[in-house]
Predict the 3D structure of the following.
Amino acid sequence: MISQSGLPRFLVPAAWISFVLNVVIIATGGAVRLTGSGLGCSEWPLCTPGSLTPTPETGIHGIIEFANRTLSGPVLLAALVVLVLTWRIRSERQDLLGISIAATVLVVLQALVGAFVVWESLAAALVGFHYSVSIVIVCVTAAYLVRMYEPVGSRALAVPKSFAILSAITAVGMVIIIFTGVLTTAAGPHSGDVNVVRDGFDATVLSHLHAWPGYITVALILVLFIWARREKLRPSRAITSLLIVMIVQILVGVYQARSGLPPLAVGVHMVLAALTAAITTITMLRLKCPTEVVASQKGSTRQQSRA
């Protein structure tokens, strides 16, 4: 059944569920690592030799790790539902089809990376890559949500070119923040298992390399916020949300750094990083809109100036 919007009836809720589940699995993945449950299930795809599910010997760590693995099923199912529903309108919405295919492929890749994380006993590079893939998936599902509500067709810049350039610089800053954050966490005390000790990078130095780009980026976001609100630009609401989340993120980051990295604060920091990445994606996509909308806005501006 096709709704009045031209989308299959259940596509909108399925897309939202897919996005939310990919954020939630970051939280549960963080719980696995921060509780030292990374090897609660020592095997993959089995939990323990000869058992698909946790055994009494694995204790609470096995339950936490297995719960995170179990959530991978609904995440994949949601991605497949979105893909199948999008396939039904593939001739009209090639843009959505491409995004849904990318999301599904990345979810499958993420499961395989999770396997290697276990097989390699929580190697820091793999754990960091595992989290980074999750961030990318969240951004892809967020992009799907944005494009889902807009008509297909050519798009044109809906903001001043200088605003778009500053937005791109801010997005690069966000990438740097997340990358250095992954390195900082990898060098920190929360390795995912009490027997896995990180070494190599100086966590204190990395924390500064992570913090300063954060301060610079939030300053850029503040400039974008004032600019967008003053000129009533299209990405205004997204930038407002981004500024709020980034301020909260910085406060959480300062708190965790000064409090000895309490697990709960680190977990919140990880989830907020995913949300800032998603909102940044939304902001960048809102810089453009359908060509006919831009043309009508320019025509309206000319009429107003003549009047």
